Amino acid sequence: MAEVSAVVVTYNAAPWVERSLESLRGTVGELIVVDNGSTDGTVELVSERFPEARLVQEANRGFGAGNNVGMRLGSGRYFLLLNPDAWLTGDALALLVAFADEHPEAALVGPKLLNPDGTLQRSVRGYPTPWRIATEYFFLRKLAPRSRLLNAFFGAGFDHESVRAAEFLPGACLLVRREAVDSIGGFDEDFFLMSEEVDWCYRFRQAGWEILFYPGAEVVHVIGASHNPAHFKQIVRGHLRFLRKHRGLRVAERARRVMLWGLRLRGLMFHGERGRAYRDAARWLGSGRTAALLQSRE
Questions:
Q1: Is residue 73 a part of any domain in this protein?
Q2: Which CATH number is 77's domain given?
Q3: Residue 3 and residue 165: Cα distance in Å, rounded?
Q4: Which of 143, 153, 197, 297 is the most exposed place for a label (fewest CB within 10 A)?
Q5: Residue 204 belongs to domain spanning
Q6: End-to-end CA distance of the chain
Q7: Chunked mean pLDDT (size 10), the chain, 298 residues
C-alpha cells in the first residue's frame, strides 16, 4: 500500500498542471490524474511529461466526482487532493503527513495557501448560513473584520499562523485520511462545482472527525484560475444545495432571498465581467424558488 495517493482532477488545466504535477514527482506513492474532458492539450501534456501518472479520462461529472474516481483507484493511507492550479513547496507533503499522523482525530488537514506572489490566501472558513451570507453579500464584514459575529464566514480575522480546527477548508489542497473517507464516503456528486468540500467537511464533523488547518506546510494556489466570474453562479448554487441538504428548504429559501437582493445591489455597484456575473446570478436566483432552481440544469 502506498503511503500517499495523490489525485489531481483536471479540466482544461494546461497552463498550470505541469507545475502542479512536478511538485508531486518523487514524493507520492501513486499519482492519479483524472481528466474531465479537457480540450486544451492537458491530456497530451500529462501523457508526455508524466508517464508515471495513472491517467484516467472521464466525462465531466464535476470536481467531486472526479476526485471520487481517483480515490477509488488509490491505495494510500492518505489521499492528497490537489488542484491542477496549485503546487506544493519544499517538504509540504512530508510535513502534512507527519502532522496528520500526530492527529489521528483529523479526517483531513489543509496547509497554508499562498498566492503566486507569496502573500497569504485566506483559507479558514465557516459554513454558509443566511446571516453569514448577508455579512458577505452586503459588505457587513468590512465593518469589523475580526468580529466573529460579522466575519465567521471568513475565519473571523484568524492570522493563519496557528493550528486551528476549522468548519471547512477549501479544496485546493487537502490531505485526507483513507479511514475517514471509508467511514462516511466520498464527495456528494450532486455538487457539480463549488461547495463539494463544504458538504464533505460538514459530514466528517457530524461523524466526529476534526478538520485541521496546519500552517507548517505551504502550497501555492492560483486562485483566479479556479474562481473566475464565470463560476459565480456555481458558488450561489452550492450555497443553496448545502443549506437545502443540511438545514432544510426553509433556510435555503431564506438564503436565496438574501443572495438575490445582495447580488442585485452588487450588480449595480460593479461593472465589467464581475458585475455581469453578479447580475447573471441574480437573474437566476430570481427565476424561481430554491427547490425548482436546484432541480434545473441551468
A1: yes
A2: 3.90.550.10
A3: 24
A4: 297
A5: 4-124+160-226
A6: 42
A7: 90 95 95 96 97 96 96 97 97 97 98 96 92 91 74 75 94 97 97 94 98 98 64 92 97 98 95 92 96 86
